[in-house]
Design goal:
Elements: E1 8-12, H1 15-18, H2 41-45, H3 61-64, H4 68-82, E2 86-90, H5 93-96, H6 107-122, E3 126-132, H7 138-142, H8 151-166, E4 173-177, H9 187-191, H10 201-226, E5 231-238, E6 241-243, H11 248-270, H12 275-283, H13 294-300, E7 305-310, E8 314-316, E9 324-326, E10 329-331, H14 348-362, E11 366-370, H15 388-406, E12 412-418, E13 438-440, E14 452-454, H16 456-466
Parallel strand pairs: 1-2, 1-12, 2-3, 3-4, 4-5, 5-7, 6-8, 7-11, 11-12
Antiparallel strand pairs: 9-10, 13-14
Helix pairs in contact: 4-6, 8-10, 10-13, 14-15
Amino acid sequence: MAFCKNFLWGGALAANQCEGGYNEGGRGLSNCDVLPYGKNRYDIIKGKVARLNPIPEEYYPAQKAIDFYHHYKEDIALFGEMGFKTLRISIAWSRIFPNGDDLEPNEEGLLFYENIFKECRKYNIEPLVTITHYDIPMNLVTKYGGWKNRQLIDFYKKLVKVLFKRYIGMVKYWLTFNEINIMVSACFMAAGLIFDEDENQYKSIYDAVHHVLVASAWAVKIGHEIDSENQIGCMLNAGLFYPATCNPLDVQAAQEENRKHYMFTDVQVRGEYPQYMKMDFERNHYTIPFCDNDEDILKENVVDYVSFSYYSTRVAKANSEGQFDSNLLKSAPNPYLKMEPWGRFIDPLGLRITMNEIYDRYQKPLFVAENGLGATDEPDENGYVEDDYRIEYLRDHIKVLKDAVEIDGLPVLGYTCWGPIDLVSVATGQMSKRYGFIYVDLDDEGQGTLKRTKKKSFEWYKKVIATNGKSLEY
């Protein structure tokens, strides 16, 4: 069983990493606009240091990014030339509701995304839309405290109602929240949380988690009511934790790490909190802030499919801290795998193992929503990059994706590699951590012409799509 004929090949972008135009078109200030490039970035991402407004001496990469706001027609034309079947993008919440709590949506923002979807349709590209991708209006942070405030559920419900109604017939595939499990470690970036010194951070984080999970279920309910054709999924930062050894303590440590992340999709797919998480809450003297009909909303509005990002597996070792930073998560060493420059292990087989683990757990269709290699590309004088290393990485992962479909029989809807054009790294704020098939002339300090140039991988991925994954060599 090969890839189905309507398999959704494509690429994935996020507004906060590519869009720019932060003060244009009526858009309000977002949390991504105050994440600086440099030494303070991680502490601000995690909510340890407050940054409520940009300060002049710092550079904020998301404010300009690669200026997709003005270049989207050019960029989508390039994706169309590659033969994309789908393009994953995200909505900048503050472009629709500049303050998050506005009475009426911003028409200019709504029209911007409508034009993007129309441009996609021109090239027969199916939009896949993430409603919230590390994006929250700063007014909802400063005035309400971010997602630890239950009022954000109603603001999010208002957002999704507007989106589902406006884009009916234009968008079929939706994701509620990007990498929902990362909100525990990247609290400000993913949930708009900033902590006071004496604050009970455990309570604040899991209050926010509950509100996001309830909001996600409301999005499923509202989306299905407005258009029964809508397919609404969740999105997990995936990649198994392997035990460091067969010592039962290491195996248990890996199980505990994996459960921390599956907790989110357990609720979104099964409709209730798992028992192991309830026990953890009890040990931490935490009570889930159930209100109104939260339990019914969660139970009756589970997602249609499970999407996930996969870059790497990780390793858990009992009674030790991970030393390698793997996409905002820590890992112990893995002597069997090579490592890319930013601390992720390169593990193609781990993709298949992870996919089987997720499907065994949920029996829902899968979607590989992110997979890619960040590298320091060196363009020639014409901007051309001979990125065989990227082709090799993607080829090896698509091979095991094919095995997951053909040998394991997994139902997989699509594959959107991250990111098809160079963009700002969400973790480091760098441009030099490049993923794309298309080179963008921009450096880590925001200097450059923004010229787009095809890399060697551009033609390779074009052939992969044209042959529906049959031709992977280069």
